[in-house]
Amino acid sequence: xxxxxxxxxxxxxxYHLLTGVVIPRPIAFITSQNDDGVVVNAAPFSFFxxxxxxxPLIAVSVSRSEGQMTKDTAKxxxxxxxxxxxxxxxxxxxxxxxAASSYPSSVxxxxxxxxxxxxxKKVQVPGIQExxxxxxxxxxxxxxxxTDEAYSSDLFIGExxxxxxxxxxxENDRVSAERVKPVSRLAGSxxxxxxxxxxxxxxx
Length: 204
Hints:
This protein is of the alpha+beta class.
């Protein structure tokens, strides 16, 4: 068994190790809006998961650069308190990967990737029409992570205020994983599709 002490590794090495062992990770494709409400930015994040059901809360971690909140998504959510999270599936993954490019803040990744905006019900930020599942979110809390001297990322906890789910992915009134065909992140540039499914009854 190899033993690794993160305290003696660089942050980059720890990142590579974490993203290699915490797999697979769901991908949040997030739309957010700039201060004047003109540009809709879109970006993927794989440090993402559900954290509570009452109220329904999801959390996404967005990294900082040299201690500063530099990514458009982080700045936009911090200012507007709203965002939309889309589940990434096989039909979207190519555009999502393209949206991860470094575009200027004045450029909308939605337009650059040829995706279509769809109006939201309870937030001002629009969603993406092509996504089979999207969640309108209002900011619940921002938790800076790292040390007081140098925060390395921010955990954005959002309350889901509206779900949009395509009828195509619903089976027996439940979301069908096989119909969704989700895509998850592995290490580096690797992704994973849904593999073999199996069930286990919980012990009573």
